[in-house]
Design goal:
By secondary structure, this protein is mostly beta strands. The protein is 0% helix and 26% strand. The protein has a domain of 54 residues. Strands 4-3-2-1-5 form a five-stranded antiparallel sheet, with no helix packed on it. A hairpin with a 5-residue loop joins strand 2 and strand 3.
Length: 100
């Protein structure tokens, strides 16, 4: 009669979930002085600390020491219309693995 109180499905879709952050250009390391990264490329950081990589792979927060983000250091392309816009906090948010 009554709907279930708890559900394993989120009430927010990935496009509107404010608790996730997507980065286009990131490097993930497993140690503080590691020279070889665990992963390089786009990631989605979830609120629980898990990192989602391409190919629907997940990295546990306990496996990661730190993540370097290089999204803001990318020079704007000549045909990029974002160069004329002001970059605010919402400019960093993207869809899952989508270019900005």
């Amino acid at each position: 009669m009554f709907p279930p109180v708890f559900s394993s499905e989120s009430i927010l879709t990935d496009e509107v979930n404010p608790l996730t952050q997507a980065y286009h250009d990131a490097v993930v390391y497993d140690e503080a002085d590691a020279e070889d990264p665990l992963y390089e490329g786009p990631i989605v950081v979830h609120a629980n600390g898990w990192l989602e990589l391409e190919g629907n792979r997940l990295l546990s927060p306990s496996a990661v020491h730190h993540v370097d983000i290089y999204d803001d250091e990318r020079p704007p392309a000549e045909n990029d219309d974002r160069a004329d816009r002001d970059a605010g906090d919402d400019d960093r948010r993207t869809g899952r693995f989508s270019p900005r």
